[in-house]
TrEMBL record, chain A:
Cofactor entry: thiamine diphosphate
Annotated Pfam families: Transketolase_N (PF00456)
Name this polypeptide is given: Transketolase
Domain named Transketolase N-terminal: residues: 17-273
Keywords annotated in UniProt: Metal-binding, Thiamine pyrophosphate, Transferase
Metal-binding is among the record's keywords: yes
Any GO molecular function: metal ion binding
UniProtKB/TrEMBL annotation, chain B:
InterPro entries: PDH/Transketolase (IPR051157), THDP-binding (IPR029061), Transketo_C/PFOR_II (IPR009014), Transketolase-like_Pyr-bd (IPR005475), Transketolase_C (IPR033248)
CDD domains according to UniProt: TPP_PYR_DXS_TK_like
Signal peptide feature range: none
Any one GO BP annotation for this protein: sulfur compound biosynthetic process
Name of this chain's protein: Transketolase family protein
Alphabetical list of Gene3D superfamilies matching this protein: 3.40.50.920, 3.40.50.970
Keyword Membrane applies: no
Family label: Belongs to the transketolase family.
Length: 278, 317
């Protein structure tokens, strides 16, 4: 089990620098692909960076090591963020990023298990959560002391399967499972609360028997401290961290703009965005 | 006849018994069910290996996702429910979470077809072969009897990748007399009888009915070749291509759209074979309530009805 030392300010600054570089690559890869989901990739970036650079026990040189921590990106459309992180860490050649979504490319439009470092094929919403529950159960059967992380979208929580999975994780007492909801409050058709009210997600997960935390999903200290707290509670309950985020975070004209949920920036927008992230 | 019909025995019982046997050999075998373990017979495994059995409640979509996750951690996963809910309710989970990543999950469903009986249309799955065989990576098996089911389940456990196995609710006559005789060969149809007037291709619980029809035809001097097609995908193309008979009759407890008959029709079309195909099955309608025996007669799927339908076809040639 990886124990995390107290966070120093220098660590935070380093993580912020990394996240900025990751955001630059996310926007660039989607811009070159001329398709993809910048909004939800940018809102999830800091959580994914914190997990892979600070929290998780994993080894790009030995991606299948048995006791590794496992991350499942249930909101699969945010995969540019995951791909950028995996490339930076050396899971595959960084040049692959610039061929995203092209015929014959390694990097598919949504995560595929065929990509080094990707643990589950996801993208059809709700499904990755169940897969993560199954992985957590499998790890426990193997008596591993690792952690399983799963990242959900807030719109994704409208899928009934999410609640089937939530029920099962509680029932099987999977306290090796830590979830995040990327609560950016937007989905393709508009505000989550206008399309289909999610209401108080904290109370909903709590009612399903989970330990629930609420954080600022762009604050590295809060992300890391909260994961540490969640890990320390070996009480038989799965943990859910509701992370309040900003869709399109880091690019001024994408922030809070639902238009960039599933649309790539055009050439002019790409140039502006990359300048902001340089 | 090379094979004689024996006493009625449940394929799902064979499933439960084989799971228990395999559980002893394979410590990484786990079983999931969605609140139907008494009916699917996974309860037999649950009793023997409570730590490796997971009842996920009435939540088939989550069951398939969890099955995928367990397979990712290296488990051999069997996931069971009724054919309707296993394949219908959770189709997209099977496609995206299991088949696309080609995971080691065996979806073994009971209560296929109209012979589910009294529960009626909502529980009579007559589209499962169609919706499973169109998924890449998925193999589809419909065992012939109790003995072959044992061999099929053993094959599933010992071969990597996703498989769909369909079995009926009711007990059916055994076609083989032992497990050794019934030894399953994946992807191979089995010629149970030779005949030069027509070829009957039956699958699963329809094989005993086909044998009854064949015996009646024999009394009329009509010699039918009989093939039991347990693997529906990948189907044994050679058996169909090499058949010298002009008339082929497919028999299945499934919609004639998309099932065994359709699969044979694809072979005939692909190879440009000059053969007539008579598809006997559920003729694109929903089921109704009734006893299995009465329903087989109602839908023309009992031996006697199959015999008469084939006679009619031969006369109208």
């Amino acid at each position: 089990m990886s124990n995390i030392s107290p966070i120093r300010n220098t660590d935070i600054e380093e993580l912020e620098r990394i996240a900025k570089r990751i955001r630059y690559n996310i926007v660039k890869m989607i811009g070159l692909a001329k398709s993809g989901h910048p909004g939800g990739s940018l809102s999830a970036t800091d959580i994914i960076v914190a997990l892979y650079y600070k929290i998780m026990n994993h080894d790009p040189k030995n991606p299948n090591k048995k006791d590794r921590d496992i991350f499942v990106l249930s909101k699969g459309h945010a995969c540019p963020a995951l791909y950028a992180v995996l490339a930076e860490l050396g899971y595959f050649d960084k040049e692959e990023l610039w061929r995203l979504r092209k015929v014959g490319a390694l990097l598919q439009g949504h995560p595929s298990i065929s990509i080094p470092g990707v643990e589950a094929s996801t993208g059809s919403l709700g499904q990755g959560f169940s897969v993560a529950v199954g992985i957590a159960l499998g790890c426990r059967l193997d008596k591993l002391n690792n952690w399983v992380y799963v990242l959900l979208g807030d719109g994704e929580c409208q899928e009934g399967q999410v609640w089937e999975a939530a029920m099962a994780a509680y029932h099987y007492k999977l306290d090796n499972l830590i979830g995040f909801v990327d609560r950016n409050r937007l989905q393709i058709d508009g505000c989550t609360e206008d399309v289909m009210s999610l209401g108080d997600l904290k109370e909903k997960f709590r009612a399903f028997g989970w330990d629930v935390f609420e954080i600022d999903g762009h604050n590295f200290k809060e992300i890391i401290d909260t994961v540490n707290r969640a890990k320390s509670l070996k009480n038989g309950k799965p943990k859910m961290i509701i992370a309040n985020t900003v869709k399109g975070k880091g690019v001024s004209f994408m922030e809070g703009n639902v238009g960039f949920h599933g649309k790539a920036p055009n050439e002019e927008q790409l140039e502006r965005a990359l300048k902001e992230l340089s | 006849m090379r094979y004689k019909l024996g006493e009625k025995k449940g394929m799902r019982v064979a499933y439960g018994e084989t799971l228990v046997k395999l559980g002893k050999e394979l410590p990484n075998l786990v079983v999931l069910d969605a609140d139907l373990s008494g009916s699917t017979k996974t309860a037999m495994f649950a009793k023997a290996f409570p730590d490796r059995f997971f009842n996920v409640g009435i939540a088939e979509q989550n069951m398939m996702g969890m099955a995928a996750g367990l397979a990712i951690t290296g488990k051999i996963v069997f996931a069971s429910s009724f054919a309707m809910f296993a394949t219908g309710r959770a189709w997209e989970q099977i496609r995206n979470s299991i088949a696309y990543p080609n995971l080691n999950v065996k979806i073994v469903a009971t209560h296929s077809g109209i012979t589910v009986g009294e529960d009626g249309a909502t529980h009579q799955m007559t589209e499962d072969i169609a919706i499973m065989r169109c998924i890449p990576n998925m193999r589809v098996i419909s065992p012939t009897d109790y003995y072959e089911t044992k061999s099929v389940i053993e094959w599933c456990a010992k071969n990597e990748g996703p498989v769909y196995v369909r079995m009926p609710r009711r007990d059916t006559e055994t076609v083989f007399s032992s497990e050794e005789e019934a030894k399953f060969q994946f992807g191979k149809g089995r010629i149970l009888e030779d005949g030069s007037d027509l070829t009957i291709v039956a699958t699963g619980e329809m094989v005993p009915e086909a044998i009854k029809a064949l015996e009646l035809l024999k009394e009329d001097g009509i010699e039918a070749q009989l093939i039991s097609m347990a693997t529906i995908k990948p189907i044994d193309e050679d058996l169909i291509v090499n058949s010298t008979n002009d008339l082929i009759v497919s028999i299945e407890d499934h919609n004639i759209v998309g099932g065994l008959g359709s699969a044979i029709g694809e072979i005939i079309a692909d190879h440009g074979l000059k053969k007539r195909l008579l598809r006997i099955g559920v003729r694109d309608v929903f089921g109704i309530s009734g006893s299995a025996t009465d329903l087989l007669r109602y839908y023309g799927l009992d031996g006697e009805s199959i015999y008469r339908r084939i006679l009619e076809e031969i006369k109208n040639k």
